[in-house]
Amino acid sequence: MQKIKSKSFVLIIPILLFSGISFYIYNLILSTLKFDQSKDLISDTKYSYVILSSDNKILSKLSRKFEIDNAQHKIPLHLKNAFISSEDKRFYNHYGIDFKSISRAIFQNIRSGYVKEGGSTITQQVARLLFLNNDLSFQRKIKEIFISLLLEFKYDKNQILKLYLNNIYLGSGAYGVNEAAQVYFGKLIDELTLSEIALIAGLAPAPSIYSPFQNIELAIKNRNKVLESMYLDGYISLSNKNKAIKEKVNLNYQKNGNFLNDKLLINFILEETNNRIKNINDFRFLRIKSSINKDWQETAQKISKFAGPKDIEFALLSIESNTGLIRTMVTSKNPSVNEYNRVISSVRPLGSTFKIIPYAAALKEGTKLSDKFEDFPTCWKNYCPKNFSEKYRGKISLIESFKSSSNIVPIAITKEIGTKKIINLANEFGLGYQQKIEEFPSLAIGSYGDSLLNITNAFSAINNNGKIQSPSILEKIESFNNQSIWENKFISKKILNLKVNKKMNKLLEKSVKEGTSKAAFIKGKRISGKTGTSDGNKDLWFIGSIDNVTTGIWIGYDNNKESKLSSGNAAYLWKRFIAEIYKIPIKK
Questions:
Q1: CATH class as words, domain 63-252
Q2: Distances in Å between the alpha carbon of 330 and those of 272, 309, 343, 546?
Q3: What DSSP line would sit under 466-499, residue for residue?
Q4: Beta carbons of 335 and 261 less than 8 angstroms apart
Q5: Do residues 562 and 536 make contact, with C-beta atoms less than 8 angstroms apart?
Q6: Are the CB atoms for 114 and 106 separated by under 8 Å?
Q7: In 3-state terms, what secondary structure has residue 109?
């Protein structure tokens, strides 16, 4: 009986091993065959694009990824041949694994005494890129071989090559040849020269080592190797090879008017573009004219570096008041590294910038600028607010209370008019949608949160004779042949009559000339604006208008830490920005 049990146990072990291996292989096959390459693209952009500034300077351009299932979307011939010649010469003659290349690589590596040549096919590299990693292990290599065979079964050679070119990492944050063309040369794929294609192909074995940004001599040496290989393989003529070798490498950062290094801004422009064209035909190329003023944008980015301690953050937004067009949008001190949109997504307490709402409501109700209000320590049930300066001025006029940024007066106004009317007016100004405004007394002094975009646009309406626009970062969108696809129509809505709006501007001008916003004052210029500070100086605001432009600045820590700065710092940086873009001399 014991012998029978022992024999059964011995039989069970191989059965379990076989079952486990079979199940593993089944799952591997299933996951590979179920793989949807259309969802794998790192970039969601379905079109090639050129993004222009408001004065037609190029901000960015990028080719779309290759469409795997679209045979009409062809890989440029030189690009195809460059990678095949340098990475996998027998690509069209193997079934995912090239034993001849592996044998040759082993022989070359043994003879040279170091790893001189790799034996992986392009298909194997696709297997690693999409399903595996670069761990050097026997198990990973077995998986790679298995998946490569399955990929060859599922896709044709051109589809595999597209998967490779779409996903290969080529250094400097570039995933795919389309991004590499943008990063290194500021071009679309079809604009690349043979020399530039060869340089990009030469990055594949070790992007960090061969990067032209790090070692241009080594990058050129590797480019020449690729060109020599293409010539020997019969893909290019001797004259084409020599011409490409002699061509000077002109990298993107070396060009005049190089692109903006602000991925977040470009992505926001593309998001807005997608929102505009979602119900329109499937275009393959778009010329997108943004509303960004490139010079202003670069100036604002430089100004941001002066915003206090190193780890404090900064955001700036400029809106053309009579159109709603966004002329400047700085989302961080370091937008190339920090990809959080503090202009759109950050909802922070508005502080005294919100006071335009209760004061506008009071003026709409017939209150005069000279009407008197009590500025004394006051409690509303258990709520006993204080003025920021902890100074109280007794009976003062409406205009004086705004100039000194009283907290007591706007709360008293709100109590008298009713919080529902205040909230309704705030909604008309575009506030209270990202964070709902609740009916509590402190809403009058900006205890609730909103974005820099919304509060700046609210001030912009006052600068636009009481008419509010929908802010937009787009002017128009065109197809490749300049066919108009979408154009901004600039629709406005009246929220304040001219009489009330004129009084609001007087309040804001008084605040800058004589009040809490004096740090923004520029002699000889008509400026209207208001500072704002949340508890503990966690949020520092200044929103101001000059001519037809309204600019908002926010300074603060992302972790909501208290700061030692004041809203005067925001007002001063606003002045520096305005002085730079208007060429106004000021003392720094």
A1: mainly alpha
A2: 17, 18, 7, 19
A3: TEEE--BSEEEEEETT--EEEE----EEE-S-HH
A4: yes
A5: yes
A6: no
A7: helix
Q: Which of 111-120, 232-241, 275-284 has the lowest mean pLDDT?
A: 111-120
Count how many residues are written for the chain: 588
Contacts of 156 (CB under 8 A, 6+ apart): none
**Coil, strand or helix at 395:** strand
Dihedral (Cα; 97, 102, 105, 107), 10-degree rounding: -170
- pLDDT of residue 257 exceeding 80, the answer is no
The domain over range 349-448 is classified in CATH as 3.40.710.10: yes
Comma-separated ranges of CATH 3.40.710.10 domains in the chain = 349-448
pTM of the model: 0.84
Tens digits of per-residue pLDDT, 316-327?
999 999 999 999
pLDDT over 80 at 362, yes or no: yes
283 backbone φψ class: left, alpha, beta (φ>0; ψ -120 to 50): beta
Residues of the chain with CATH 1.10.3810.10: 63-252
Short-list 114, 79, 89, 75, CA closest to 229? 89
CA distance 19 to 25: 10
**Nearest residue to 150 via CA among 25, 65, 247:** 25
Q: How many alpha carbons fall within 13 Å on the CB side of residue 157?
A: 12
Per the CB < 8 A criterion, the answer to whether 35 and 130 are in contact is yes
| β 449-450/394-397 pair status | unpaired
